[in-house]
Amino acid sequence: MMPTITAFDRSPDQGRGLARDTRVRWALEEVGQAYEVRYLSSAAMKAPDHLAIHPFGQIPTYEEGSLCLFETGSIVLHLAERHAGLLPGDSDARARAISWMFAAVNTIEPPILDLTTARIFEADKPWSAERLPLVKDRVRARMAQLSAYLGAAEWLDGAFSAGDLLMVSVLLRLRMSGILDEYPNLAAYVARGEARPAYARAFAAQFAVNSPS
User: Fold this and answer.
1) Which of 32, 53, 150, 175 is the 20 to 30 Å CA partner of 189?
2) The domain that contains 106 carries what CATH number?
3) Average pLDDT for residues 90-104, to the nearest whole number?
């Protein structure tokens, strides 16, 4: 049975690949799995039938037969375990790749999301000018650690894996702030991810629906 994912009917990022359904699309493209997309409005995301699948009323979700999943990390891990191409065959390397998946969404993404909140949603607060530099410092601290680990390597742990897929997806959120460019090896790492044909197909699919008219 062909899986179905959910996505914004009009993404807040206007198709720049930052909406989380892009991560799932990318994983599906990497493993060569065809899929369908059910597009949802903001109102539909809060409707009972969607809340039964995603209790927090967000996207994406993944449905395949009787299986319903939410959270991009969970969905990408499911795809990586079910299909070849996103996790190494060696058990130790496989475990390390999964560790990087968790690191991307649990360690690297939270301060980046905090920066987005500070720059966009808190810009009008009287304390914004004082808080923003502190938030940027926390992001830079993580970027410095990640940059030092990656060094001159192409990917995080040998061949491209689901860990890289999620890490690149998370780091893409930094591009507009200019902070990513402060770490040339991380900027190059993200560019390598974007250059993968599977990413290009995923991005094009999301952009086709959400690009500004």
Assistant:
1) 32
2) 1.20.1050.10
3) 98
Edge-to-edge order in the sheet of strand 61-64: 36-40, 4-8, 61-64, 67-70
> What CATH number is given to the structural domain containing 53?
3.40.30.10
Burial class (CB in 10 A: 0-12, 13-18, 19+), 140: middle
- Structure token digits, residue 117: 């909140």
Q: Going by DSSP bridges, is the β-strand pair 36-40/67-70 parallel, antiparallel, or unpaired?
A: unpaired
Assess whether 99 and 185 both reside in one domain.
yes
Number of folded domains that form the chain: 2
SS3 70: strand
Where helices occur in 32-108 by DSSP H, the ranges are 42-45, 48-51, 72-82, 91-103
DSSP H/E element including 146: helix 128-150
- Asked whether residue 137 falls in the same domain as residue 183, the answer is yes
Q: To 5 degrees, how large is the angle CA 2–CA 205–CA 183?
A: 115
Q: Domain limits at 63? A: 4-85+198-210
pLDDT in tens, 142-166: 999 999 999 999 999 999 999 999 9
Q: Answer whether 0.85 is exceeded by the pTM.
A: yes
Q: Is the bond into 111 cis (omega within 30 degrees of 0)?
A: no
Tokens found for residue 123: 């810009």
36 shares its domain with 80: yes
> Looking at the structure, do residues 75 and 58 belong to the same domain, yes or no?
yes
Let me know whether 114 and 75 are in one domain.
no
Strand-strand pairing, 36-40 and 4-8 = parallel
Phi, psi of 49, deg, nearest 5: -70, -35
For residue 169, give both structure tokens.
Answer: 């997806």
